[in-house]
Amino acid sequence: MAPAKRVADFRREGDHWFYDVVLPSDVTVVVGGQHFHLHKFPLVSRCGKLARELEENTQKIGAASNVLLDGFPGGSENFLVAVKHCYGFRVELTPRNLVMIYCAADYLEMTDEYGDDNLLSKCHDYLHKKVLRNWKDCILTLQSSESAIPYAEKLQIISKCMNAMSVMACTDPSLFGWPMRMYGSLQSPGGSILWNGINTGAKIRRIGPEWWYEDISYLGIDIFLKLIKTMQSRGIRPEHIAGMIMYYARKYLPGLRRWKGMQDSARTVTSLSTMPKSVDQRVLVEVIVDLLPEKKSKSYCRFLSWLLRVALILGVSQECRETIERRIGVQMELATLDCLLIPTYSDSDTLYDTDCFQRILQHFLSSDRTISPFSPSSVDEEMTPSSAPLRRVARLVDNYIAEVASDVNLKPNKIQALLEAMPEGSRSLHDGLYRALDIYYKAHPWLSDSEKENVCNIIDYQKLSIDACAHATQNERLPLRVVLQVLFFEQLRLRTTVASCLQAVETQAELANPVAVGPHPTRQTTRRDRWVTTVRENHDLKVDFESMRTRVRELEEELRKIRLDMGRVSKPNVPLAPSLVIPGRTGCGLLPRASEVHGKVLQSAPSTPRSLVENVRDPQHSRHRKSSSYV
Questions:
Q1: What span, in angstroms and rounded, lies between the C-alpha atoms of 413 and 533?
Q2: Which residue did the predictor score with more confidence, 345 or 607?
Q3: In a 3-state reduction of DSSP, which class is residue 27?
Q4: Closest CA to 601 of 560, 561, 543, 538
């Protein structure tokens, strides 16, 4: 509202304003460095504050003299509008200038006590009869109040506009024409818009429940914060509140636009409003986190994961980061793998932030999981209470470990912490863990057997499927002791299965022969002898396994000595150990005692360990063998 060199009958000369009349001015009012040379009578007849100030000056110095108005809302330009009203000029009120003029009238005390139809009552009537009944006018009024929020709050302009908008937001806009439509409301039987009874061919756009998102997104962060809190207190549904916050965040946080593209809205006041002034994005993230409701859904969880990425990039406070991680953790069963693959934004060597993932997982394990979804319709069938969230999260953790395992900078202690994060009993099968470890061993071939064995301790070999066991027995990346354990439990499972089948066959035979049913002593003795035999065989299998484990240790020790001696072959004047040199061979022979024990082990072990022991005896051949990864 910048004044020109001449506005109405007022003229400007530098920092001085004069009213073009014959009578000389008797009062000078200073506002914002501008001097207004005015007349006492028009001012005291309309402005209570100026009347009081001039009366005090008259009593002190005997003349009206000068009046200084500090902190006048809107500055000198706004004071000029109020002065015009005092001199009888018509003041045109609009949603854009209402707040400033309203604040100026209140500051000058331009009530009806100092003249009928004074400026303060005009602003009050315009606000209630015009602005509060129109969505677009409320938006424009709130935008114009951002530069005078304390004054506007004192006059309750902001609260009244927000209450009116809250009512409009939860009402069908087609009933009252919100927001303002470009065409009339008449339509043809086919649904086209009519203009003077003529079919224009334009179709009426259907308005969804989120029609007001775009308009509100043009408000500044302070007004937006107050509006969201007002809507929450007025009972707006949480999914609409969350949708509005997510829309606002995507608009002003560039990192979130990758999550979901911005959609243009036909119901907007963009052409009638201005973008809010730029705000600190870090402050915006913290405000958004405080506003988000405590609900859960798939899209909501995905938004939180992207918000966490932006928060880590901007370096928000630790409290804000922990709040986002906690909100993701309490609904982790709804997350997907790409949501949790959060890159490392610090100086760490790893590709993904595994520490952040562990914190999110810990929030899930420690939460009571009582947070309700936004609405029953937002819950998928697969997310019903009958399904187990713990099992879903366990599968998600296995997939996460398999994804990050290929990172060559991931230390063994890190992946071991990830493997041990889930409690026992959360996995029905350990195939996911085995697959993740296989990928990790393939990406880290320099790990020693002891390090591999420490990482493998989390796997329960009895929970491996048949396919996983078959792959493990041929996997050269696994330590030999781990392979033997897999073989042992596989054979034990086989014997248990055979025993169960025999028992089922006997039961069916007894049911098929009713005459034989009964406590026959001979039949009971035979059945007891079979179980005793099975128990004895299991005991013998354990003894064979222990002897095989002992022999493997001996083979590993002898293999280490062989490798040391073969390394000395290339060095001159270094004699070999005479006990390990066998004529006619090249340093690979074993001691006779070892061969005898080896033959004994082979008699009690299946064919698969035989090939493994032979691989130990011939390391050169085993080095050239390749095994495929278990997928």
A1: 44
A2: 345
A3: strand
A4: 543
Q: What are the beta bridge partners of residue 115?
A: none
Coil, strand or helix at 12:
strand
Residue 378 CA to residue 366 CA, distance in Å, equals: 25
418-434 pLDDT, tens digit each:
988 888 888 888 888 88
CA distance 536 to 297: 55
**Phi, then psi, of 11 in degrees rounded to 5:** -125, 155
Is residue 331 within 8 Å of residue 296, measured between CB atoms? yes
Q: Residue 113 in contact with residue 51, Cβ under 8 Å?
A: no
Question: Using N-to-C axis directions, what is the helix angle for 521-569 and 607-617, rounded to 10°?
Answer: 10
**Number of Cβ atoms within 10 Å of the Cβ of 197:** 7
Whole-number Å distance between alpha carbons of 518 and 252: 82
Q: Report the C-alpha gap between 38 and 15 in whole angstroms.
A: 14
Cα-based angle 125, 154, 137 (whole degrees, multiple of 5): 45
Rounded Cα distance, 462 and 472, in Å: 13
Q: How far is CA 621 from the centre of its chain?
A: 51
Confirm if 400 and 335 have CB atoms less than 8 A apart: no
pLDDT digits (tens, 9 = 90+) for 472-528: 778 888 877 777 777 777 777 666 666 667 666 667 666 665 544 455 555 556 666
81: Cβ–Cβ under 8 A, 6 or more apart, which residues? 1, 91, 97, 101, 104
What are the structure tokens assigned to 510, written together? 């007894």
Query: In what helix (H) or strand (E) does residue 592 lie, and over which residues does it extend?
Result: helix 592-604
Please state the pTM of the whole predicted model: 0.69
Quickly count: other Cβ atoms within 10 Å of residue 49's Cβ. 16
> Taking the mean position of all CA atoms in its chain, how far away is CA 396?
16
How confident is the model over 387-416, as pLDDT tens digits?
Answer: 478 899 999 999 999 999 999 999 989 998
Q: Residue 606: how many CB atoms within 10 A of its CB?
A: 12
pLDDT of residue 370: 66
- Res 31: pLDDT: 92
Give residue 154's pLDDT band: very low, low, confident or very high (50, 70, 90): very high
Cα separation of 1 and 5, whole Å?
13
